[in-house]
Design the sequence.
């Protein structure tokens, strides 16, 4: 029996560590040829190097899989072009893109520097946009459809104290996922997002992770969900945001309340105050 991702070429960004590395190992074991992208910097976006991506590639090859390393940053158009080029020059096509690379530079909004804002928006939001754009253009040329799996966060969907930059970026990725799902439907390209919670170098010292163990909340739980979304099994799944907290999998949905319609004329602020509870039901 063919493996789940047999014959597929998958680009996974930020695959040198954490969740992306788990994705790369899982996808390769499911038969995919994997472009392991990682800039190799620290978790705040400082530095770079090839070791992280190379280690993931070496581990995939040791297990009998196929992979190539790429060290470009997702946050520039040139970087995104370079990542696609790695897929095309080594494997001749691209079927799957997993936008996973990310950094954190937590500050309250009042204390945030311009650099903390730009770097985080650049890596998450622009990185996801650039990689999605270059890969979708290639998928259009190939004419065989494809799968894009983005990575958002409860921080961007619900909100989290001290993460104004990160939440804005991840909320943007939610919106981009919804729009791309609509725009790419006619090309047979599905676009979904995972919203993970996992103990990694990015999160291990956050208060919300206190006491969490990798056995119950490790990055390994996210990858089967990403692989499902990347596979032929999910041909009819698009525009969805899949939450994964350890063994729990669920969907996030934007909610519109039933609301209240005024019979005629316009609402006054005093009437809005009076019927606020009803409006929110
Ligand atoms: P991580 O820090 O372990 O992994 C992120 C990887 O992205 C690193 O290997 C890093 O070198 C790479 N990277 C950073 N900037 C890059 C760039 N410009 N170009 C290419 N690669 C780059 O973090 P983790 O936890 O594995 O995060 C993966 C994704 O999941 C991120 O998008 C993160 O925001 C998201 N996420 C993680 C959560 C968690 O609980 N761990 C919660 C919600 C979202």
Sequence:
């Amino acid at each position: 029996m063919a493996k789940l991702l047999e014959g597929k070429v998958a680009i996974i960004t930020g695959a040198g560590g954490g969740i992306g590395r788990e994705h790369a190992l899982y996808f390769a074991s499911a038969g995919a040829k994997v472009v392991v992208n990682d800039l190799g910097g620290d978790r705040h976006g400082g530095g770079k190097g090839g070791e992280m991506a190379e280690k993931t590639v070496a581990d995939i090859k040791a297990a009998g899989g196929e992979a190539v390393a790429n060290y470009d940053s997702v946050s520039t158009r040139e970087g995104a072009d370079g990542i696609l080029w790695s897929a095309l020059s080594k494997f001749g096509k691209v079927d799957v893109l997993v936008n996973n690379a990310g950094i954190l530079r937590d500050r309250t909004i009042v204390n945030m520097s311009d650099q903390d804002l730009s770097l985080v928006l650049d890596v998450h939001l622009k990185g996801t946009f650039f990689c999605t754009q270059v890969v979708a253009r290639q998928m259009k040329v190939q004419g065989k459809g494809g799968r894009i799996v983005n990575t958002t966060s409860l921080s961007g969907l619900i909100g989290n104290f001290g993460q104004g930059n990160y939440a804005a970026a991840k909320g943007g990725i939610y919106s981009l996922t919804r729009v791309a799902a609509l725009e790419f439907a006619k090309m047979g390209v599905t676009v979904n997002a995972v919203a993970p919670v996992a103990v990694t170098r990015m999160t291990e010292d956050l208060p919300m992770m206190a006491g969490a163990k990798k056995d119950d909340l490790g990055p390994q739980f996210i990858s089967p969900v990403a692989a499902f979304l990347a596979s032929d099994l999910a041909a009819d799944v698009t525009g969805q945001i899949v939450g994964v907290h350890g063994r729990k999998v669920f969907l996030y949905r934007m909610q519109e309340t039933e609301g209240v319609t005024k019979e005629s004329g316009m609402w006054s602020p005093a009437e809005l105050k009076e019927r606020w509870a009803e409006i929110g039901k």
User: Anything to note?
Assistant: The chain has one domain: 9-279. Strands lie at 9-12, 33-37, 66-70, 96-98, 146-151, 189-197, 241-245, 248-252. The mean pLDDT is 97.
